[in-house]
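Weekly puzzle thread! Below is a chain. First person to post its structure in token form gets bragging rights.
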Amino acid sequence: MSWEFKEEHLDRILVPTGLFFMFTYHVFLCYRYLKFPLTTAQGSEDYYKKIWVEKMLQLEAKDKGTTVAVINSNISAASSLSSVSLVLSSLIGALIGSSNEKDIFTSSFIYGDSSPTIVSIKYIALLCCFLVGFASFIQTTRNYALAAFLISIPNCDIPANYVQKPILRASHFHMVGMRALHIAATLIMWIFGPIPMLVSSIVLVAVWYLLDRNLTPLYQFQQRLQSQQTNFHKIGEEIATMTRGLRHQERGNVDRSSNSDAA
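Winning reply:
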């Protein structure tokens, strides 16, 4: 008995293939981030955020208004994204509860498996992505709020790493939330069939690869500080030389005037 190919089999082949592409790419990205962090966009962001925290902690308490404003803007962005994720999760939940056999997503124009079981799996997968995004953005808001409390403490010599940790955790949770929304976009394409889902997965992996790599050399803040100190040292030496010359000239003028008085 020969095996007969049916369009329902496309979901069993193409959908796992698209998910495998996205999973393999993130394994590669995690390897690059752990071994060569400065070659990734996330690693370069972590580097600049660490420097930003160190510089902001050097300011006086009255001058930290801009610092708190920057953190508050990130909190507002994360709160908006968490609200969007929650609304979409509620919408998907309502669609699951009210789905029926006459749903547009089970119609005959979709090339693939349109059985009620597969449609329910599509909805549940979308719901999981939006819930992961909601939880990640909530954690982003929480960590940014903690960093705002720590960095705004007046007359406090708190170490920089105490503020850097929540800032970096917030950045990582924000990345996870955004990736969950990106994956949800490919699952939305799965609603229209496994072929659009596979194509969108390949395109998304290509876009991720372009966005996640860092080809710009990092700015070395410490080297700039050392060069400034060297310039200040040279200026100080020049001023000291000029001062010694002026003193020597004044001493010569005083000797000449004393000699003329004696004569």
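Puzzle host: Confirmed. Bonus trivia for everyone else. The two ends are 134 Å apart (CA to CA).
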